[in-house]
Amino acid sequence: MIVRPRRLRTSAAMRALVRETRVNLDGLVQPLFVVPGTGVVQPIGSMPGVSRYSVDAVVDECRELDAAGVRAVLLFGIPENAEKDAVATVNYDPNGIVQRAARAIKEALPQLLVIADLCNCEYTDHGHCGILDDAGDVDNDRTLAVLAKTALTYARAGVDIVAPSDMMDGRVAAIRHALDGEGFTKTAIMSYAAKYASAFYGPFREAADSTPAFGDRRSYQMDPANAREALKEVRLDVEEGADIVMVKPAMAYLDVVRAVREATDLPVAVYHVSGEYAMLKAAAERGWIEEERAVDETLTAIARAGADIIITYFAKDYLSRVRA
User: What is the pLDDT of residues 121-149, one digit of tens each?
Assistant: First the structure.
């Protein structure tokens, strides 16, 4: 007998009938960059189609996202350079950029989930993700106190999920303790559990104005060569109280995504980062790839590896197309 697998590929309807992996449409998250001012929409040169928004403009953008079927957004705040200092004071200002944006979005669109990235790199004058000691190294435990304080201001502003991305040891426990101590037991934590020191973050640093003034982040972000270490980081965050664990970046780390999926029952998020977005956009603009098919294939691959939640700059365009 000749085995003929092609029978199940004969038409679009047949292929759809037996399709093994589908992207969770309700699990796509759109990142948003928020800046001071009014009526501001600043296109980001290295990320075609992505802009920085003032609070009023980000609310308008969220209305469009909601209409397209996006269920959640991830906020990054970008304060004025003059507001930055060595200890990220503006990060935990109750009237800071993320706090004001969260309140405005939840007032306009209470059904939209608001996730706030929790880090210090956009708020320090040195651009590192933590508070520095006298030797110029990131002081892990002093940084935890700032993260916990900032998480409380986010929760008070109506943020549904705080997402610590700093890769400090013990941050999930410190944040959970602070939130629970103030009665924010419903505020979830999505930890950047396995965040690698990647070359694919370049466009983000332009978008967020967060390039370190000196050195790099390899002493706290993970070595790209390590997979077992990722499972250790995930296990620690789960034990400390994370509700969702994340792998970042996506495309070069799908083996890690699969390993994390098999290691935990928690929802697994994957961040399809700025450099990955920019590469697809640049190739499509030059006619080297077909953008829609490449995006579909990429998101499907991330889902196939085990992601429940995909944070991607393609969320709005993808959902506008597939939900139409």
Answer: 888 878 677 788 877 788 899 999 999 99
* Closest by Cα among 36, 65, 68, 70 to 53: 36
Which one of the listed residues 106, 195, 281, 316 is annotated catalytic?
195
From residue 116, how far is each of 30, 130, 253 by CA, in Å? 12, 17, 23
Tens-digit pLDDT profile for residues 266-280: 999 999 999 999 999
pLDDT for res 213: 64
Rounded Cα–Cα distance for residues 298 and 150 (Å):
34
- What lies within 8 Å, CB to CB, of 267 at 6+ separation is 243, 244, 245, 308, 309
Q: What are phi and psi of 95, to 5 degrees?
A: -110, 25
Strand, coil or helix: what is 113? strand
DSSP state of 79: -
Q: Do the beta carbons of residue 212 and residue 186 sit within 8 Å?
A: no
Q: How far, CA to CA in Å, does 82 sit from each of 56, 125, 156, 189, 237?
A: 22, 9, 25, 30, 34
**What predicted TM-score, i.e. pTM, was given to this entire model?**
0.95
- Selecting among 84, 106, 248, 316, the annotated active-site residue is 248
248 tagged catalytic:
yes
Tell me, yes or no, if 195 is annotated catalytic.
yes
The domain 22-322 having CATH identifier 3.20.20.70: the answer here is: yes
* pLDDT tens-digit readout, 192-221: 999 999 999 988 877 877 677 665 677 788
Query: CA-to-CA distance for 206 and 210, rounded, in angstroms?
Result: 7
